[in-house]
Amino acid sequence: MKNSPGSGGILVIVPEIKRNEKEVVETVSRHVRAVPGAVLRTSGSVTETQGIIRDAALSGVVRIIAVGGDGTLHTLVNACCSLPPGAKTSFGIIPAGTGNDFAGSAGIPLDDTAAALDIAFNADPAPVDVGRVNDRCFLNIMSGGFGSRVTTELSREMKDRFGGYAYLLSGVRHIRDLEPRFGRLKAPGFEWEGTMYGFAVCNGRTAGGGILISPDAVIDDGLFNLVVFPEMPLTDLASVLKSLLLERALAEGGKIIVRRIDSLELELTYGWRVSLDGEPYAGERHSVRILPRRFSICLPENSKLLAHTANRVACPRATP
To answer: Among residues 16, 48, 231, 279, which one is catalytic?
Structure first.
């Protein structure tokens, strides 16, 4: 099979073939072979994947689809944001990772590869917002503290063995390590400093394998939902942890701070763990900005993550 579909074609990338994804990859391969102008490529590293995406987009490929989870989407977004302004390539995702937080909250089927393929190949792409943190971008959520530690310290072995439940197990394991740390946050119309257990800058809604952090977030409104977990009495903290780890959703009210923002200056003391879309990110000073409509992605027609479905760009269907 040739390596590039050429101008106007569709490229499907498998960044890493893992044991529990083989069935998905086989289904995708059959679909690609049946679609004229579609090509499948494999990639063994993030750097290689980003290079493939950039070369394909600059050569006129109209759609790039990747097989994977939130980490794969993170790679797609950062590759897209490195392209020259005006690039016309749209993107799609076939869920095959462990958490699939973004795909799940967007309404992309997690257990129906054929349905996910139909969306990735045939849905009209929607322009959505991207978060930028210093030199990196994220699509779903930037998190720090307890939640970030749960995701960044989760081993590949645990993910392969327990799937989405690995996040719950990791959360329970790290409860004993909870320690509030100092941070300073500044956004237009909002300033706060103090000790906190964690924070989340939400473009999307869920993190940690399906925990609903920001239930009303949408990804095309030009705003983040900021959620801060300040230091609080142990009884309140126990209630928060119960809602996050057992009920898989953030309980409303209480001591938690929630704000709608479009930018954030963040200063953290040494020892904070920060992640972007579940991928670790180092540093103690972070300048967070939203890039409106920077990423074009294929989502279900009535995805709850979209507020402005009329902004979709019509594309021809690519059915076998």
So the answer is: 279
